[in-house]
Amino acid sequence: MAEIPYKIFLEESEMPKAWHNVRAVMKELPDPFISPATGKACTADDLRPVFCDDLIAQELNTTDEYIEIPEEIRSFYKMYRPSPLVRAYNLEKALDTPAKIYYKFEGNNTSGSHKLNSAAAQVYYAKKQGLTSLTTETGAGQWGTALSMACAFYGMDLTVYMVKVSAEQKPHRRAVIETYGGKVIPSPSDTTEVGRRILAENPGTGGSLGCAISEAMETALKTEGCRYVLGSVLNHVLVHQTIIGQETYAACKKYGIEPDMIIGCAGGGSNLGGLISPFMADYIQGKNNIDFVAVEPASCPSLTRGRYAFDFGDTGKMTPLMRMYTLGSGFMPSPNHAGGLRYHGMSPILSKLYHDGYMRAVSCEQTKVFEAAVKFARVEGTLPAPESSHAIKAAMDEAIRCRETGEAKTILFGLTGTGYFDMTAYQAYLNGTMTDYIPTDEDLERGFATLPKINF
Ligand SMILES: *Cc1c(COP(=O)(O)O)cnc(C)c1O
Fold first, then answer.
1. Degrees (nearest 5) of the Cα angle 268, 34, 292?
2. Nearest CA, atom 5, ligand 1
3. Is 62 exposed, middle or buried (0-12, 13-18, 19+ CB in 10 A)?
4. What one-character-per-residue DSSP string does 7-36 give?
5. CATH of 82-112+242-448, one of 3.40.50.10540, 3.50.30.10, 3.40.50.1100, 3.40.47.10
6. Which of 28, 80, 187, 392 minimizes the number of CB atoms within 10 Å of its CB?
7. What per-residue string of b and e applies to 20-56 under the rule 16 or more CB within 10 Å gives b?
8. 228: buried, middle or exposed (CB in 10 Å: 19+, 13-18, 0-12)?
9. Torsions phi, psi for 15 (to 5 deg)
10. Is 18-67+115-228's fold the same as 82-112+242-448's?
11. Atom number, ligand 1, closest to the C-alpha of residue 271
12. CA of residue 223 to ligand 1 center, whole Å
């Protein structure tokens, strides 16, 4: 077996030619989406006014374990892939742990995160279908940036509804989106009916991802040649993100690395779902015994404290109903939460795997997450995104546990992005002004009260 380098990069000839679709091997499938209009399972025709045709096919594909990555998308990926699988030797040393720690780093592109993996695919398919413009929402801004880059590359107009607090907190993020040609509208806005309604009901609101999704969907429905695209949660997004898992899987096979534990942060679940997908397929078939762990913020705890229920993907209740772990589409995360991952729901695929006991979930408070982020930055060099730092925190906790038990576990985690645009949050942590917010049971009940009646 080849000696393990500090950073593992696959050769071009070793790059995956297909995405992975774990649904093809799941013993039970996630529930189908339900159309709120008919109360029946959504068909491709129900989804066509909102989504691109090829993406709908991927969304509903539960049978093909491998989905070929078109040549054009593979050549886009060549601009920034493969991403490195890094052995965290310095972190291991700093923690004095017998554990071996690896991380797959997705922040090596200008958008700064894994989101570009799906943006490239979604814009390619939209272009292929002859569409002329796209709308989307962005929270922390990574998705809007990634999509703007992909739209510039393929020649597609883009309108980004950016959660108002993020647009205010991250003016540079907005400027990057605009540099690549995307138009940014802080949400809620007065440009849509749903935005005007939300503003009337909550005048001072800083917005939420759910509101921004409703606005972007409304605009897509009302604009000729326009479709809505989403950066997480949906099955096709998770499928695109399996490029992360496919590369990691190939690198592990090449160097004989056998992870005992795979950890990822979970907002809507796409990076974690993408990272674990091929490993999970093996696990389901009894070929490994990996402990899969989702890490979420204590302030937005959809897996650890949410309900497994049919819910809308957006605050305006325009999406199909998806069965997922959710805090209710009306849940509004605390505005003092700086660490991203503020979506109310979770990927239906991950939700099903979690519900059926194939993986675990833990939650972390944001000050603990930033403490881990700063430690990681100082020893490993890379400045991690706050979202990614949830995974760092869990990996470090496990490595410390290994120091106490003497176990030489192999821990692998997804490092989804860089933190360059999150310096306000880092500063708050360093100044000691960052606070933790954990919703009370009553806060959560208010969100659950917004779940659609279909559940009762
Ligand atoms: C969007 C984002 C996440 C969370 O999204 P998932 O769909 O859960 O992967 C995590 N890390 C970074 C850097 C992000 O931009």
1. 30
2. 267
3. middle
4. EE---GGGS-SEEE-GGGT-SSPPPPPB-T
5. 3.40.50.1100
6. 28
7. bbbbebbeeebbbbbbbeeeeebeeebbeebbbebbb
8. buried
9. -65, 140
10. yes
11. 9
12. 28
Describe the chain by its helix, strand, coil percentages, rounded to 5: 45, 15, 40
Q: How far, in Å, are 15, 48, 246, 256, 280 from residue 8 at the CA level?
A: 13, 41, 14, 12, 22
> Distance from the CA of 224 to the center of ligand 1, in angstroms?
30
Other Cβ atoms within 10 Å of 453 Cβ, number: 6
From the centroid of its chain, how far is CA 211? 18
Per-residue pLDDT of the chain (456 residues; tens, 9 = 90+): 667 889 999 999 999 999 999 999 999 999 999 998 888 999 999 999 888 999 999 999 999 999 999 999 999 999 999 999 999 999 999 999 999 999 999 999 999 999 999 999 999 999 999 999 999 998 878 999 999 999 999 999 999 999 998 898 888 899 999 999 999 999 999 999 999 999 999 888 888 887 898 999 999 999 999 999 989 999 999 999 999 999 999 999 999 999 999 999 999 999 999 999 999 999 999 999 999 999 999 999 999 999 999 999 887 788 899 999 999 998 987 777 777 788 899 999 999 999 999 999 999 999 999 999 999 999 999 999 999 999 999 999 999 999 999 999 999 999 999 999 899 899 999 999 999 999 999 999 999 999 998 775
Spatial distance between the Cα atoms of 371 and 393, rounded to a whole number of angstroms: 8
Angle at 262 between CA 390 and CA 24, to 5 degrees: 115
Work out the angle between the directed axes of helices 53-60 and 116-128 (0-180°, nearest 10).
Answer: 120
Atom of ligand 1 nearest to the CA of 388: 11
Which residues have C-beta atoms less than 6 Å from ligand 1? 113, 115, 142, 232, 265-271, 340-341, 385, 387-388, 416-417
Phi-psi sector, 112: left (phi>0), alpha (psi -120 to 50), beta:
left
Q: Fold for 18-67+115-228, please state it.
A: Rossmann fold (3.40.50)
Annotated domain spans of the chain: 18-67+115-228, 82-112+242-448
Crossing angle (nearest 10°) for helices 235-255 and 53-60: 70
How far apart, in whole angstroms, are the C-alpha atoms of residue 360 and residue 292?
6
pTM listed for this prediction: 0.95
Q: What is the DSSP letter of 455?
A: G
DSSP-derived secondary structure for 356-382: TTS-EEEEE-HHHHHHHHHHHHHHH--
Work out the angle between the directed axes of helices 142-154 and 116-128 (0-180°, nearest 10).
Answer: 40
